Amino acid sequence: MSDNLEISRRRLLGTMGAAGAAGLALGGAGGAAGYAALADGGDDGPALAAVGAARVPFRGAHQAGIVQPPQACGHLVAFDLAPGAGRKEAVALMRRWSAAAERLMAGEPVGGSDSAVAKDAGPCSLTVTFGFGASFFDRTGLVARRPRELDPLPVFSSDRLDPKRSNGDLWVQIGADDALVAFHALRTLQREAGAAAKVRWQMNGFNRSPGATAHPMTTRNLMGQVDGTNNPKPTARDFDRHVFVQPGGAQPWMAGGSYAVVRRIRMLLDDWEKLPLKAQEEVIGRRKSDGAPLTGGTETTRLDLDKLGPDGRQVIPADAHARISAPEQNGGATMLRRPFSYHDGIGPDGVPDAGLLFICWQADPSRAFVPVQRKLDRGDALSRFIRHETSALFAVPGGPAEGEYVGGRLLEA
């Protein structure tokens, strides 16, 4: 991702000095560079550390926040247009949001009323991503431009969905490697919404922080499992075809865009943690220690789905999550998973409300998420330990070119 990083000229004004910064290592999938102070000939004081200086461009063929490594902090927010608001108000809103997002991702204040929450930090890999729900097209009189891919997701038997925390006219995904930078973006965009749109629901998530591991590695979820091993790589030959809408489709405004399925999946951690290690590994189909398949090798070794043990049974059980969700078991169905973990406290019964804010990206949900989830719904051993509590689907248009705002090709075509 080094092509997406720019070094900000802003300085680190907090307590981290050059000596302290030099001893840390930048972990996660975002890169293996150190925190060594960056030379800059401007202001006095130590240069902004690498984590703070990392900047993701706002403009490009695709919106930011899809192919970039998941950041340490995230906010997912759905908005509904206010009563009486329509296409005109949506145009003004997306113009405001796009202008604000571009400044925020550059590590710059937004207007004279900026709250200064992120004043001392750099961009910190901030990304802001915008999407439209199916209901947005009804509200703006653009039903003829609503993509087929936004048809409602089917109902799955394991769903226990809260409609108040599902769907929405508009969706914003915020990610950053600093919690204050992420909150600042959230608060700014909520304020910029003004009277045009109101928050429908909000969810807050997190991932491992850069530098927490000795070297870049796949993150773990709250079950302690390495999560994301089989994610398609942007360097793969057919990555764009699976993840992004190609030009020439029925809705030209979606070229370069993607479809985001968002699911809040509660993990029943008390039940899970009662399982012995061997049983946990058989539920997943991978070793907990390093994410390698039960059939051997390393984390990236291909699953040997035909391998039998000394007892004549499949080494990777028939209902193991890794087996059922494998692309080769689903006609090659491929999606890019980019989740956050969440923890919303502990209830009166002592049970944690925690799990995964599952986000997956694909060119067509009916060919990726839907068939895989149908198969998981029928026989995944992991289903006993999770509960799908919210669901949403959004059309995320391509990135804006110079002079454009996100969604302009839809709203002004």
Automatic annotation (TrEMBL):
Q: Outline the extent of the Dyp-type peroxidase C-terminal domain.
A: 218-399
Ranges for domain Dyp-type peroxidase N-terminal come to 63-207
The record's principal subcellular location, in a coarse class, is other
Record field: catalytic activity? heme b + 2 H(+) = protoporphyrin IX + Fe(2+)
Region (Disordered) residue ranges read: 287-309
One cellular component (GO) term of this entry: cell envelope
Localization in the cell: Cell envelope
Q: Domain of life of the organism in this record?
A: Bacteria
Positions of transmembrane segments: 12-38
Alphabetically sorted, this entry's keywords are: Heme, Iron, Lyase, Membrane, Metal-binding, Oxidoreductase, Peroxidase, Signal, Transmembrane, Transmembrane helix
Report the EC number(s), separated by commas if there are several. 1.11.1.-
Q: Name any one Pfam family assigned in the record.
A: Dyp_perox_C
What does the record's cofactor remark say about binding?
Binds 1 heme b (iron(II)-protoporphyrin IX) group non-covalently per subunit.
Q: Is the keyword Signal in the record? A: yes
Query: Could you tell me the Gene Ontology terms of the biological process aspect for this record?
Result: iron import into cell
What PROSITE patterns has UniProt attached to this entry?
DYP_PEROXIDASE, TAT
Cofactor(s) it depends on: heme b
Q: Name one GO molecular function term.
A: metal ion binding
**Does Lyase count among this protein's keywords?**
yes
- Summary of the function given for this chain in its UniProt record: Involved in the recovery of exogenous heme iron. Extracts iron from heme while preserving the protoporphyrin ring intact.
Family to which this protein belongs: Belongs to the DyP-type peroxidase family.
Q: What is this protein called?
A: Deferrochelatase
